[in-house]
């Protein structure tokens, strides 16, 4: 809303109030309740008009509230003026506020009437307040109500007749009741067809309309039946205040939008990381108060949109009462919501932004997760490739160099035996060559074993761990090793853990004994190596423990080291195992 | 590789009092032929040679040799075909002695082999073939129903560090006797090797069995298994 418009509206409201108050001097006591209630109602609608105008600049609601406000204040002011023309016009338009209220109620919450029929109903409402009044005023003498004199003259009067005036008034009642019924029926229909956000906005209006219409009907009926109550304080001063519920609607609506904004923000903040789009939709729908909210995603092939429960959504034609808001940033995501929300663009923008953030967050998380998964997989592949390479090397050594050395030894053995009887010197020379070959064989055997223990691939963990225990320079007992076979990578990791751990025990622990336990638990293999040595081993201190932890991690496992100084070291590798 | 039964040579037959019939399974041609030559020269009858486990089984079925020499690793998978073939031979022809040649010192394989019946079983490191006299002696021993366990395997088991083990209470002599028992030697052989009387050997055996809490076993092959099992614990 422009600043100039706001200033004009404020100035208009102030001027209307001042004129009304000034015109009513000296405020005769019998009319005081009526003056006060009119002033309060008129001012409330004018203020609500300014508020509605600034909140919904694109809607006519502000204008409608303002019209109602002036429809209350202007006729009342004119009636107070000691001028026959003003007095006559004031009385003629005294009930025009009823038509303005009907317009406002029917146009709620968009500010627009929904059909030509409704336009007709509003025109009929105005006409039905003006035409019968005009006719009745032809016979109305202000003295009927004791308000004549001092310029308060009815210039339309042609024949002062109380009975005709009453008759005209009474005749107009069925028509106004019928119109009121139609208006109420239309409001009920609006309420019933509204869903989600619109339903929540319509519900208070429905109750207010019932109350206000009940008041108008009661006023019409009691006034025309000339019941005593119709002139009392209640009917003139207090009951009209029910109309104040109209401006209160603006306040309630503002509060609702504000709290929805807060709730949307909180909902996104509270979303647990990695929550599904379905959870996001539910949280947003709850926070927004629009149970019809849909979060739709474009199909990868671009052929259409699906919502979070897998239903196809027509984004281009979302259906009557539905509207679409694009979620910026999130590729091809759309919010499909109640059209009533379009009157809360800020709330809608916030919701879209919140959805975008949450989706982006999920996407980034999924991306990081995928990258992590890739790194994990590639690390496992690298380790496996290394293992395979070691197996190949060991086999090459076995089938190549070792075999040749054995053949050489055999040949040397034969040569020595032949030479022994003939040339003892040559015999002893060959003997020493034979010894060298044997030494080389032993060294080569241990080298090959260090590269990869054939027994692991051939017989599994049990034999390989037994061999490690037999070779360990520290007394090593095996408490448990599963007999079954496991995937090669897992066996290799478990073997590596025990091998390195026992090597560490021998090198650093100053231990008398070590213990190896391998247990197969559901979904994992737990390898435990403990010793009774000096303790104080620290993985970060650059010992073999670091490499061990890396190796275990490459198989997706965890290495725990418990090594209090002086109390030995306990090493536990927890390796996932299908 | 074809199955090639050897013609019996008349000269060699005259030399040996009992000519043991041997089948060799080894995938390296050079080594296989070297072995054939060495064993033939040593007075054994190399009845046939095979390059893989299937051939070996066919040969054993056809020739029913006294002793089979089998490399553990053979084609096609180069893992433990020789070992599996040895077990198969022992199952189908229990009287056939088998020496498994290994390039590893792995007690796992050894125990797999001994588990059935240690009589006539040998587990020998391949490089032992260089010591021709010892090697032919091992062949004769398994043919006679003894067990032959490579000294390297035994010494590793004996030398293992232990805590609170009765082994620590054995005298040096007793340990030496224990090791030779684990290699599958008879009391007679132990006495010869350690230069003591068979009676003394028996005394040592009795005393060390008592110390270790083992039941004395009269038969050598039971003794081997009992001692090795004890050492491997």
Architecture overview:
The complex is a heterodimer of chains A (578) and B (233). Chain A contains 17 helices and ten strands. Chain A has 578 residues and is of the alpha+beta class. In chain A, strands 3-2-1-5-4 form a five-stranded antiparallel sheet. A five-stranded mixed sheet of chain A has the order 6-7-8-10-9. In chain A, strand 2 (305-307) and strand 3 (312-313) form a beta hairpin. In chain A, helix 2 (32-55) runs antiparallel to helix 3 and helix 5 runs antiparallel to helix 6. The longest helix of chain A is centred in the middle third of the chain and has 78 residues, at 345-422. The two termini of chain A are 67 Å apart. By secondary structure, chain B is of the alpha/beta class. Chain B is 51% helix and 12% strand. Chain B contains eleven helices and six strands. A six-stranded parallel sheet of chain B has the order 2-1-3-4-5-6, sandwiched between helices. Classes of the chains: A alpha+beta (578), B alpha/beta (233).
Question: Topology of this protein?
Answer:
The complex is a heterodimer of chains A (578) and B (233).
Chain A: H1 3-23, H2 32-55, H3 61-80, H4 84-92, H5 96-107, H6 116-137, H7 162-193, H8 196-224, H9 233-238, H10 245-270, H11 277-288, E1 294-298, E2 305-307, E3 312-313, E4 322-326, E5 333-338, H12 345-422, H13 424-451, H14 454-459, H15 461-471, E6 475-480, H16 488-509, E7 513-521, E8 524-531, H17 544-554, E9 558-562, E10 570-576
Parallel strand pairs in A: 6-7
Antiparallel strand pairs in A: 1-2, 1-5, 2-3, 4-5, 7-8, 8-10, 9-10
Helix pairs in contact in A: 1-2, 1-3, 2-3, 2-10, 3-4, 3-5, 5-6, 6-7, 7-8, 8-10, 10-11, 10-12, 11-12, 12-13, 15-16, 16-17
Chain B: H1 10-15, E1 21-25, H2 29-41, E2 45-50, H3 53-63, E3 67-71, H4 81-92, E4 97-102, H5 107-114, E5 121-125, H6 132-143, E6 148-149, H7 151-159, H8 172-182, H9 187-194, H10 198-212, H11 220-232
Parallel strand pairs in B: 1-2, 1-3, 3-4, 4-5, 5-6
């Amino acid at each position: 809303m422009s600043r100039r418009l706001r200033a004009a509206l404020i100035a208009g409201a102030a001027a209307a109030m001042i004129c009304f108050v000034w015109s009513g001097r000296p405020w005769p006591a019998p009319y005081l309740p009526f003056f006060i209630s009119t002033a309060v109602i008129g001012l409330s609608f004018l203020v609500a008009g300014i508020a509605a105008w600034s909140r919904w600049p694109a809607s006519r609601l502000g204008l409608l509230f303002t019209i109602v406000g002036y429809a209350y204040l202007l006729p009342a002011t004119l009636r107070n003026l000691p001028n026959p023309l003003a007095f006559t016009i004031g009385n003629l338009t005294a009930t025009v506020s009823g038509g303005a209220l009907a317009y406002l109620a029917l146009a709620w919450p968009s500010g627009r009437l929904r059909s030509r029929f409704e336009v007709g109903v509003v025109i009929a409402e105005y006409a039905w307040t003006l035409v019968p009044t005009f006719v009745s005023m032809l016979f109305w003498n202000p003295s009927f109500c004791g308000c004549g004199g001092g310029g308060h003259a009815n210039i339309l009067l042609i024949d002062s007749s109380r009975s005709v005036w009453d008759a005209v008034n009474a005749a107009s009642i069925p028509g106004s009741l019928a119109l009121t019924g139609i208006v109420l029926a239309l409001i009920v229909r609006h309420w019933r067809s509204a869903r989600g956000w619109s339903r929540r906005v319509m519900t208070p209006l429905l109750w207010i309309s019932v109350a206000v219409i009940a008041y108008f009907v009661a006023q019409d009926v009691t006034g025309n039946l000339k019941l005593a109550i119709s002139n009392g304080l209640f009917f003139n001063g207090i009951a009209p205040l029910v109309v104040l519920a109209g401006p209160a609607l603006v306040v309630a609506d503002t509060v609702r939008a504000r709290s929805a904004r807060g709730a949307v923000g909180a909902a996104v903040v509270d979303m647990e990381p990695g929550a599904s789009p379905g959870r996001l939709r539910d949280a947003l729908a709850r926070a927004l108060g629009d149970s019809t909210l849909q979060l739709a995603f474009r199909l990868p092939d671009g052929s259409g949109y699906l919502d979070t429960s897998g239903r196809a959504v027509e984004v281009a034609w979302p259906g009557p009462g539905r509207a679409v808001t694009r979620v910026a940033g999130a590729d091809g995501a759309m919010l499909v919501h109640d059209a009533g929300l379009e009157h809360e663009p800020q709330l809608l923008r916030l919701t879209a932004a919140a959805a975008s953030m949450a989706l982006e967050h999920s996407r980034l998380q999924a991306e990081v997760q995928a990258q992590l998964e890739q790194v994990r997989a590639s690390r496992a592949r690298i380790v496996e490739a290394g293992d395979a390479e070691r197996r190949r090397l060991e086999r090459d050594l076995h089938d190549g160099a070792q075999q040749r050395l054995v053949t050489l030894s055999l040949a040397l053995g034969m040569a020595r035996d032949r030479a022994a009887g003939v040339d003892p010197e040559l015999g002893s020379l060959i003997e020493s060559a034979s010894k060298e070959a044997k030494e080389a064989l032993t060294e080569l055997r241990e080298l090959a074993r260090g590269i990869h223990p054939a027994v692991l691939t051939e017989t599994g963990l049990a034999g390989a761990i037994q061999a490690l225990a037999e070779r360990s320079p520290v007394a090593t007992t095996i408490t448990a090793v599963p007999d079954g076979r496991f995937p090669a990578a897992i066996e290799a990791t478990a073997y590596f853990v025990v091998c390195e751990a026992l090597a560490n025990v021998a090198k650093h622990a100053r231990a008398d004994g070590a213990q190896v336990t391998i247990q197969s638990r559901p979904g994992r293999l737990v390898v435990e190596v403990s010793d009774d040595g000096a303790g104080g081993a620290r993985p970060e201190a650059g010992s073999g423990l670091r490499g061990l932890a890396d190796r275990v991690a490459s198989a997706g496992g965890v290495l725990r080291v418990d090594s209090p100084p002086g109390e030995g070291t306990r090493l536990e590798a927890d390796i996932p195992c299908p | 590789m074809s199955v090639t039964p050897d013609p019996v040579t008349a000269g060699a037959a005259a030399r040996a009092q009992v000519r043991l019939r041997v089948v060799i399974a080894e995938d390296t041609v050079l080594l296989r032929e070297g072995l054939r030559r060495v064993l033939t020269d040593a007075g054994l009858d190399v009845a046939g040679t095979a390059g893989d486990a299937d051939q070996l089984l066919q040969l054993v079925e056809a020739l029913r040799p006294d002793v089979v020499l089998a490399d553990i690793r053979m084609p096609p998978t180069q893992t433990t075909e020789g070992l599996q073939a040895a077990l198969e031979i022992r199952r189908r022809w229990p009287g056939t002695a088998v020496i498994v040649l290994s390039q590893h010192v792995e007690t796992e394989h050894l125990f797999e082999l001994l588990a059935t019946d240690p009589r006539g079983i040998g587990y020998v490191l391949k490089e032992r073939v260089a010591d021709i006299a010892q090697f032919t002696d091992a062949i004769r021993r398994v043919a006679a129903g003894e067990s032959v366990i490579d000294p390297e395997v035994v010494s590793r088991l004996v030398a293992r560090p232990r805590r609170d083990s009765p082994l620590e209470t054995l005298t040096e002599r007793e340990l030496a006797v224990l090791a030779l028992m684990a290699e599958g030697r008879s009391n007679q052989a132990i006495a010869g090797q350690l230069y003591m009387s068979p009676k003394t050997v028996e005394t040592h055996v009795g005393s060390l069995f008592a110390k270790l809490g083992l039941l004395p076993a009269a038969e050598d092959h039971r003794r081997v298994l009992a001692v090795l099992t004890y050492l491997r614990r």
